[in-house]
């Protein structure tokens, strides 16, 4: 089955710092890869996705590249803002399916 | 589009009572998912439906949990009898097939 490993949180950064949240996955076949974000008191929202190897997903200044050789999909942002404080979830989905497997997520705290 | 609607937002009940959580998916979405989120275990998939039919309920913790989807616009998750360890945030999500999930804002359940 599918599984995902994310770096332990919380990650605390100063505003404008560079962000990396590591994600590695195991999955059967050729999964699509997603990053979701959860703001306090809300449900998860899709942040970005990549559907095949070497694809780069991007949104709101965040980027992640689908690395099949290392089974990774690390999330990066060049300059974080206080409003980016949230919990971030990496999730693989089997090819042709929509059943997401989530880990515990990584909490990001951005301070002034 | 109103998004996925869950009710109630908060539920506090005593151990042994029956609890019913409700979900209205986005119109036209044919897949519906119930997730449970806790600090210890993160986000766990409980059950999902395709076209109102339960496809995978392997995540349902035990017989005290049951889920129904009587039509395309409504689903319930019932816990009977409830226990303190069921305290969590329960999310419903829907999807139009092989597409990213749209989450509701969740129901925070507290069982005392």
Describe the structure.
The complex is a heterodimer of chains A (112) and B (112). Chain A is mainly β and 112 residues long. Helix content of chain A is 0%, strand content 48%. In chain A, the strands form three sheets. In chain A, strands 2-11-10-5-6 form a five-stranded mixed sheet, with no helix packed on it. The mean pLDDT of chain A is 91. Helix content of chain B is 0%, strand content 55%. Chain B has strands spanning 5-7, 10-13, 19-24, 31-38, 42-50, 53-56, 65-71, 74-79, 88-95, 102-103, 107-111. In chain B, strand 5 (42-50) and strand 6 (53-56) form a beta hairpin.
Which descriptors apply to this entry?
heterodimer; A: 112 residues; mainly beta; four-stranded antiparallel sheet; 11 strands; globular; B: mainly beta
Précis, in short:
The complex is a heterodimer of chains A (112) and B (112). Chain A has 112 residues and is mainly beta. Chain A is built from no helices and eleven strands.
- Given as residue ranges, the uncertain stretches of chain B (5+ residues, pLDDT < 50) are none
The DSSP helix count of chain A reads 0
Count of helix runs of chain B: 0
Q: Can you count the beta strands of chain A? A: 11
Main beta-sheet strand count, sense and barrel state of chain B: 7 strands, mixed
Unreliably modeled segments of chain A: none
The major beta sheet of chain A can be summarized as:
5 strands, mixed
Radius of gyration of chain A: 13 Å
Q: Specify the overall morphology of chain A.
A: globular
Anisotropy-based shape of chain B: globular
Strand-residue fraction of chain B?
over 45%
Strand order, largest beta sheet of chain A: 2-11-10-5-6
């Amino acid at each position: 089955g599918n599984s995902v490993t994310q770096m332990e949180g919380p990650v605390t950064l100063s505003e404008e710092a560079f962000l990396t949240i590591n994600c590695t996955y195991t999955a059967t076949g050729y999964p699509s890869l997603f990053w979701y974000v959860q703001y306090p008191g809300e449900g998860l929202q899709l942040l970005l996705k990549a559907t095949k190897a070497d694809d780069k997903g991007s949104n709101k200044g965040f980027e992640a590249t689908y690395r099949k050789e290392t089974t990774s999909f690390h999330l990066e942002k060049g300059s974080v803002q206080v409003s980016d404080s949230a919990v971030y979830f990496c999730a693989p989905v089997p090819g042709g399916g929509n059943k997401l497997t989530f880990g515990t997520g990584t909490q990001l705290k951005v301070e002034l | 589009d109103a998004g996925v609607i869950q009710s109630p937002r908060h539920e506090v009940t005593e151990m042994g009572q029956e609890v019913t959580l409700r979900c209205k998916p986005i119109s036209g979405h044919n897949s519906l998912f119930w997730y449970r989120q806790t600090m210890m275990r993160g986000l766990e998939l409980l059950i999902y439906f395709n076209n109102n039919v339960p496809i995978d309920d392997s995540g349902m913790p035990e017989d005290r949990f049951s889920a129904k989807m009587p039509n395309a616009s409504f689903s319930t998750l019932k816990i009977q009898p409830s226990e303190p360890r069921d305290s969590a945030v329960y999310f419903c999500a829907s999807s139009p097939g092989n597409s990213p999930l749209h989450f509701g804002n969740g129901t925070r359940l507290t069982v005392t």
